Amino acid sequence: MARILVVEDSPTIVSSVEWLLRRNGHEVYIARDGLTALASVRALVPNLVLLDIMLPHTNGFEVCTLMRRNPAYNSVLVVMMTALTDEADVQKAFKVGANGYITKPFKDESLLESVNQYLAKQNKATVKTKSGAPS
After folding, report:
1. Is the preceding peptide bond at 71 cis, omega within 30 degrees of 0?
2. Domain ranges of the chain
């Protein structure tokens, strides 16, 4: 299915999300801080990054900003997965280039549904681009 990088410092959330995504056929990679996330993006070029905002070393806003500065990662979807629910944080996430925003806590089914919807949109855009149609 898809290559997904989960960037999260909570072992409990990592374990739950990793199990859920693997059970549904995805390749899952883990980064527990912002610096490791950036190195992992360079090494893997995942389809999707589930990115916490409050991380050690480099926060999720900074990770997303740095990813969006590099055209090599334009096709990588970034979905913030965070406990921050303030509208200013949501707006900032989209301003720095996030494609989506999921708040914690979340139900497994809703996370999986959201992930699948983002990936489906990405696949549609890729097919249109490859066929020569505008994306």
Report:
1. no
2. 3-130
